Here is the input.
Amino acid sequence: MRKTDISTMASKPDIWVDDLRAGGDVVRVRFPMLGQVWMTTSYAAAAAMLKDDARLTMRKAGPDAKLAGLKWWMPNIIRLLANNMLSNDEPIHGRLRRAVDHAFRPPFADTWPNLIDQQLDRLLPPIFKDLQNHRQVDMVERLARPFPLGVICEMLGFDSPMTSQFAILAARMTDISGALSFLRAIRPMRRMRRLIVNQMEACSGSDFQPTGGLVAALVQNMNKANEGEDVHEDGHLSEDEVVAMIFLLLMAGHETTTHLISGSLLELMKHRDQWDWLKHHSGDRAAMRQATDELLRHVSPVQVSKPRHVGEDCVFHGVELKRGDMIMAGLASANRDPTIWDIPHQFNIHRTAHPHIEFGSGIHFCLGHRLARLELERVLQRLMEFEDASGRRLALASAQPVWRKRPGLRALQSLPMILK
Here is the structure.
């Protein structure tokens, strides 16, 4: 039995990845909050696990349909908010996903560039001013966190005051490293749920002016169905399902992108030659796509998948799994598989093949993958443009980044930067 050291998962991924892989394609570990669980270490095993929906399921078979990883002591708010598309199998997963899938495809996706630039136009000028005045700027607090949160809140239809409240509450839910910190996060979860319900009620009011936000669309379809009108099944969610969906989009729509942006800036500042090359080719979409693929692979902000139940005794990649066991995919380990990449721990934006698995695979493949890529690319481009305009260079203000001790996420606590 291996005990996963969460203090090295973020700061020293090469060490814990190599240690796990030494045990085979699938190893038994003790993971915080979950206890004993199987974890894949290779790319092949992770990809196979994420697509094996017949034997490896998000919920146990039976009348209670218990979610993998849900503990008896967890309050009811967790069961409510966890009832989303990421924690359900088919056919429920498909019904929930179809209700919002359109918002992440054209023509709605065609509005993203303007939406992204509007958020950056709001955030970047004061950052650039402080940098030019020789002040340190924490890029996590000032950019990487508020930027994607502002984008997803705009898509959902939340106004600026509510977005600010969500930012405060979300920050209080990011330091979960064990049972005690998990319980401390319950209060902000409940507060966030109340804000979501308030917005839903406002969208149902007779004086509500439609804004085009996704919350209003979900509430409208819910109300039509409740009144007996014909509503396509793809848009019909219950009230609790709408609450859980909005909570998921808020958190998943900004948190992982926050860590992707900050982690990418850290790597690129540590490898200035690659930053300078990318800056010279920032107008080349193929070059930018190649670089962001490598950043996704190397940074791997989401290090493990959600756990799944083993539904039947089976042999999986040479390991005997028992019914009732839990298994999760090691995404960071898969993304550093030496059978797929040469010198996998090395950051290199010039790689030509990037079959990373950071967005998952199978039916739960990340809904917002296009948005996350675009957000990262545009942030990098704007920062490169600032360097060119100022004639100076961005740099790390500290050689020792501080990482959050949150299991499963590679998240920087802060990223102070300066202008040289």
